[in-house]
Amino acid sequence: MQSQLTNAVLRAIRRILRATDQRGRKLAAATNLTPSQLLVLQEIERRGETTPGAIAHNLHFGQATVTNIIDRLEAQNFVTRQRNERDKRQILLGITAGGLTAIRMSPDPLQQQFSAGFEDLSTWEQAMILAALERVCDLMGATDIDAAPLLDSGTIDRSPA
Amino acid sequence: MQSQLTNAVLRAIRRILRATDQRGRKLAAATNLTPSQLLVLQEIERRGETTPGAIAHNLHFGQATVTNIIDRLEAQNFVTRQRNERDKRQILLGITAGGLTAIRMSPDPLQQQFSAGFEDLSTWEQAMILAALERVCDLMGATDIDAAPLLDSGTIDRSPA
DNA sequence: TCAGTTATTTCGACTCCCGAAGTATACTGT
DNA sequence: ACAGTATACTTCGGGAGTCGAAATAACTGA
């Protein structure tokens, strides 16, 4: 049996999830970039010239999904596709000036939504919230997840042999 | 400029979101219930006989979305629809034995991961965590900004160039 | 050269989520 | 009693995400 408190906490977490999701949607409407698209775009920027397969692997998407997303990004002229001359099976992705701008203009939904209010809280309250959240992370076993910027970007090096 | 605390909190939240998302995907895929469906189903169980509207309101979904999800749940015989005799505009939702089993068999990923540890905490700590999370919810909900004004905030995660 | 592997795309199928329009029902003021 | 309005839900249409399976093209090893 679960305590009232446990359930309340779980519900609160879901609400946060939900709020973030909604925010992402609104943002997408405003900036022409959905969260997934932004993720892929950032990945391209981060890795420079890269391939769909590498992105799929890093973000844990299917190849088909990445193709799909890149289709949209390309349609908006945010990325370019170019066959690799060495290995003609591969496609090299490049980010355009427009794509860079798009990244710069697409604020992290979470921050956008959250920061303003948070900074107005008293320091002790901020600290309390942080402590609580970190506790939650521990409990969820989320500590091992790389929290960098939005993605779990880890060190998935594809050793080129 | 963002304080250390703010950034730490954001990181923590992202970790929670990511962890939730990942585990949700995994487990939901294994049990024939998507996260959204499970959410709705749980909501029905929690509230007993309830209506689509109430659920939509509670989970912050659109009515159409809820109808949609309930369609699927009904197709799997997890919920029943029944016109309210008092107010024939309303539909009363009920959960079936199958629905209950489904919930039992696909435990909320969060609960899985989370509950055991959480229940071991002292009551005051549980209460603190809940308070903090609810504060976060408030902060997120409070900002009901629309698209336009957020475009000027490109300097979010980086120092003002 | 031929078979097997690898990289990507295409295709088809779900789901999600939403807004707008539609339908049926209830309520309200006169 | 009866328009007019409000409420509850469904239907419709559409954009996006996600995936698996099959197709295509290209590289690689024997």
Concise synopsis of the structure shown:
The structure is a homodimer of 161-residue chains. Chain A has 161 residues and is mainly alpha-helical.
Describe the structure.
The structure is a homodimer of 161-residue chains. With 161 residues, chain A is mainly α. In chain A, 62% of the residues lie in helices and 6% in strands. The first copy, chain A, contains 7 helices and 2 strands; from the N terminus they run ααααββααα. The first copy, chain A, has a two-stranded antiparallel sheet with strand order 1-2. In chain A, β1 (79-83) and β2 (91-95) form a beta hairpin. In chain A, α2 packs across α4 and α3 packs across α4. The first copy, chain A, starts with a helix and ends in a 21-residue tail after the last helix. Residues 142-161 of chain A have low confidence and may be disordered. At the A-B interface, α1, α6 and α7 of A face α1, α6 and α7 of B. Chain A binds a DNA duplex (30 and 30 nucleotides) through α1 and α4.
Terminal CA distance of chain A reads 53 Å
Give the strand order of the largest sheet of chain A, numbering strands 1, 2, ... along the chain. Answer: 1-2
Spans of chain A of at least 5 consecutive residues whose pLDDT stays below 50 are: 142-161
Strands of chain A, total number: 2
Structural class of the secondary elements of chain A?
mainly alpha
Helix content of chain A: 55-70%
Largest sheet of chain A: 2 strands, antiparallel
Beta fraction of the residues of chain A? 5-15%
Q: Which sequence of SSEs, written as H and E, runs from N to C of chain A?
A: HHHHEEHHH
Give the quaternary arrangement of the chains: homodimer
Mean pLDDT of chain A: 79
Q: Helical segment tally of chain A? A: 7
Radius of gyration of chain A: 19 Å
Biggest contact: A-B, 63 and 62 residues
Overall geometry of chain A = elongated
